[in-house]
């Protein structure tokens, strides 16, 4: 089996859905799925203390749970297929997901959590490294790798990004954990109705084979997890919001929705009509958009990274935010819609303005764009894309861009597989470049946030000396 200096692949196997009878055979990729065909697979995983059972028993438990989970998420056991008209579908053909057992017993939990910068060893805890989503035509759409450490275990998932976004990813992960700990019900049934612009006739044609990522995946970057306590975020909020208008917008709180106790009996994996009830229960959940990290961490990071990059005052800098559009469009789609339902919101400003104006101004610029991204804006972006179908360009093309993904509202620490909550969240090498930021919930305090920040080494060094930013880091 393949091995590196510290990690050995002990076994690989294919896991098939426990039930292979579904009410659908294919799922057409939407206008939000297709642009991801040139992106790497999503790679996210969880670090745990050692479970109180032998490794053979753990692997058997996880394989059984994965079989059950694939019965609810049959798309993840399929493959991509392109029709003669160029449209791409997920063929739910039960070809199976990959399950990998690896050993890295020279690495301990402290070796992952103690270093200031995320160690390169973490990248080995994920399968399908460097694979782009288009390759799902002949590679598994899902790979689960279980890596033994000297005093813990890491469960890493690699999932095709053209098949799902972060909302769907964590719904899958939560269900996997739920069934692993012996549940006979699942609380978050995925919605496979293709009602997020699913009637589009737009296609992307690749004349030269598989597309490539749009950034230099070998460029050197430093990666660090910055932790912000609830208290630090409140201090930033007061500073940023002291004159920021408290505009409210009816956007459903995703954190509350993802944690709703909608008990759904285990069945044969067929689609059930639970969406309307869930939607009616959810519409009363309204929160202020200004209660998000848009008002606090994002403007602070934008200012400090821009300063660390030492850009000319006239240089235009861009901050992109990936937003969930499930509850922004009319009619709204189910919060647990399976697939990608995201768009990227760019905010552009001159470097001189970002640095000479205060944090409140930066927060206002970002906040205004988030609130303005309503049904009309979402549909306008779709119409514009359909006129010129293309893959989503990830990267920092001008040296002045940042891209924020993931969300502290995702229920990442709800993944208890039966022996306790995760110790930490980590990601693989996928889709990382200078300026890529991911937001995770903090582990030990409700309202705390972790930012996974990837920057060019010299920019990271400058950020770590920036007291406007670092004074809030704990």
Give the SSE layout.
Elements: E1 8-15, E2 26-28, E3 42-49, H1 55-72, E4 79-82, E5 88-91, E6 97-104, H2 109-113, E7 142-149, E8 152-159, H3 166-180, E9 185-186, E10 222-228, H4 230-241, E11 251-252, H5 254-258, E12 264-265, H6 275-282, E13 286-287, H7 297-308, E14 316-324, E15 342-350, H8 351-356, H9 359-372, H10 375-387, E16 401-406, E17 424-427, E18 436-441, E19 449-455, H11 457-463, H12 467-470
Parallel strand pairs: 6-7, 14-16, 16-18
Antiparallel strand pairs: 1-6, 2-5, 3-8, 3-17, 4-5, 7-8, 9-12, 10-19, 11-13, 14-15, 18-19
Helix pairs in contact: 1-3, 7-9, 7-11
How would you explain this protein's 3D organization?
The structure is a single chain. The protein has 474 residues and is of the alpha+beta class. It is 25% helix and 23% strand. It contains twelve helices and 19 strands. The strands form five sheets. The protein has a six-stranded mixed beta sheet, covered by helices on one side. Strands 10-19-18-16-14-15 form a six-stranded mixed beta sheet. Helix 1 (55-72) packs across helix 3, helix 7 (297-308) crosses helix 9 and helix 7 packs across helix 11 (457-463). It is globular. The model is unreliable at 246-291 (pLDDT under 50).
Structural class: alpha+beta
Number of strands: 19
Q: Give the DSSP E fraction (strand runs of 2 or more residues).
A: 15-25%
Shape: globular
* Multimeric state: single chain
In what order do the strands lie side by side in the largest sheet?
Answer: 1-6-7-8-3-17
Portion in helices: 25-40%
InterPro entries: CAT-like_dom_sf, Sec_Metabolite_Acyltrans
Organism: Papaver nudicaule (Iceland poppy)
Keywords: Transferase
GO molecular function: transferase activity
């Amino acid at each position: 089996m393949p091995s590196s200096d510290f990690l050995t692949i002990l076994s690989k196997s294919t896991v098939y859905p426990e039930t292979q009878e579904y009410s659908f055979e294919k799922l057409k990729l939407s206008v939000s799925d297709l642009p991801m065909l040139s992106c790497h697979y999503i790679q996210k995983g969880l670090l745990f203390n050692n479970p109180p059972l032998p490794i053979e028993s753990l692997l058997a438990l996880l394989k059984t749970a994965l079989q059950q989970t694939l019965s609810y998420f049959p798309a993840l056991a399929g493959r991509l297929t392109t029709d003669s008209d160029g449209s791409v579908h997920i063929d739910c053909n039960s070809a199976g997901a990959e399950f990998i057992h690896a050993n890295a017993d020279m690495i301990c939990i402290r070796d992952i959590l103690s270093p200031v910068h995320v160690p390169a060893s973490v990248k080995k805890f994920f399968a399908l490294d460097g694979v782009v989503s288009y390759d799902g035509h002949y590679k598994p759409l899902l790979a689960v790798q279980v890596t033994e450490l000297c005093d813990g275990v890491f469960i890493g998932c690699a999932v095709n990004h053209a098949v799902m976004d972060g909302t769907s990813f964590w719904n899958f992960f939560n269900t996997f954990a739920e069934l692993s700990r012996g549940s006979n019900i699942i609380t978050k049934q995925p919605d496979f109705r293709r009602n997020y612009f699913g009637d589009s006739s737009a296609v992307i044609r690749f004349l030269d084979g598989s597309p490539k990522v749009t950034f230099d995946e070998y460029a050197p970057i430093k990666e660090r997890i910055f932790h912000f306590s609830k208290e630090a975020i409140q201090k930033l909020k007061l500073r940023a919001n002291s004159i920021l208008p408290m505009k409210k917008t009816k956007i459903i709180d995703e954190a509350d929705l993802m944690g709703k106790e909608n008990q759904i009996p285990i069945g044969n994996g067929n689609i059930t009509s639970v969406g309307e009830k869930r939607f009616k229960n959810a519409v009363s959940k309204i929160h202020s958009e200004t209660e998000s990290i848009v008002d606090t961490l994002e403007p602070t990071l934008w200012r400090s990274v821009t300063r660390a990059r030492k850009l000319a005052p006239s240089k235009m800098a861009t901050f992109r935010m990936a937003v969930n559009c499930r509850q922004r469009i009319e009619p709204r789609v189910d919060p647990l819609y399976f697939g990608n339902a995201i768009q990227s919101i760019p905010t552009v400003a001159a470097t001189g303005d970002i640095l000479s104006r205060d944090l409140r101004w930066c927060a206002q610029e970002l906040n205004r764009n988030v609130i303005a991204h309503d049904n009309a804006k979402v549909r306008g972006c779709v119409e514009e894309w359909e006129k010129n179908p293309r893959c989503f360009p990830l990267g920092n093309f001008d040296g002045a861009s940042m891209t924020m993904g993931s969300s502290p509202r995702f229920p990442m620490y709800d993944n208890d597989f039966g022996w306790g909550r995760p110790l930490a969240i980590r990601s693989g090498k996928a889709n990382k470049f200078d300026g890529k930021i991911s937001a995770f919930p903090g582990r030990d305090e409700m309202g705390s946030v972790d930012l996974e920040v990837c920057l060019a080494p010299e920019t990271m060094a400058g950020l770590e000396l920036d007291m406007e930013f670092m004074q809030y880091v704990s």
